[in-house]
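Structure request: Oxidoreductase YxnA, Hymenobacter cavernae.
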Amino acid sequence: MTLKLKPLDQQTIVITGASSGIGLVTARMAAKQGAKVVVAARNTEALEQLAQEIRNQGGQALAVTADVGIEEDVARIAAAAIAEFGTFDTWVNNAGVSIFGTCEEVSIPDMRRMFDTVYWGVVYGSRIAVQHFKQRNEPGALINIGSFFGDRATPVQSTYSTAKHALHGWTNALRMELEMEKAPVSVTLIHPGRIDTPYNEHAQSYYEHQVAHRGMVYPPETVAESILFGAAHPKRDMYVGFQAKALAAVGHLAPRLMDKIMEVLIPPTQIDPKRPSRNPETSALYKAGYGLHERGSHEGWFRSGSLYVKAQKHPLLATMAVVGLGLATGALLKKQ
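Returned structure:
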């Protein structure tokens, strides 16, 4: 069954984790493209400011304070969206928080709390969105934000990686079941690489030095671009950055080699030895983190965008460009 999703300017989009980072950028971009937005997070003040900002610019927005780790709160987000706008057309499960620490040192309560947000929050949101789309019998989009670490296990963020693996498994299983019953639901899994958000400051850290991305870092707009594309065009997966796709592929084909690469690569690129840890002052594991910040405090090569995201949006054009480049290269070589 081919699903036809509404254009963005005709949609109501629910976005969890909307008070900062990817969720914040996505809400702003969606509103600018004409969508009504329902923004949800634990930070009431940030959400209200965001909703007012969107309304001041001529958009429509509703703020709902909620903890996605509590099923009743997620149900309340959906009820508020329907009460305000009559329906919702896309549900984005974006809320998340990480833990930096080894498998043996991270406490079980911390692990459970993180799973409440990263995994169970997605389960609750997915089920209520699917139920709504089925009941109205009109196509809708479910967008789940995964991670490269959901494709490939990692040291340092082992708990987060485990939760993202569970999220990926849930999303893929749900997609197949919905496809089997021909349900009117498009399910997209987003696979971001390193993204410049306050993710590091909000994380729970067991390290004495500040956690941060150090290396190639993409702007949150690239993830928002992928999300909004999936909201209007049925798409199974969207990888943010060729690096995320390439490393996932290598990990599948040569897992032992990737183990060694990750063991060498990850520790120095996740911890900044020049800064003391800001934890627990800014940790958002048990309380709302500070809001309305799109960017974090990472360091490295900051990309302005992702050509790979654009290639996934237009795969035929991308293939033609690669073929054309290959033919042109071949022609030049023949002349030499």
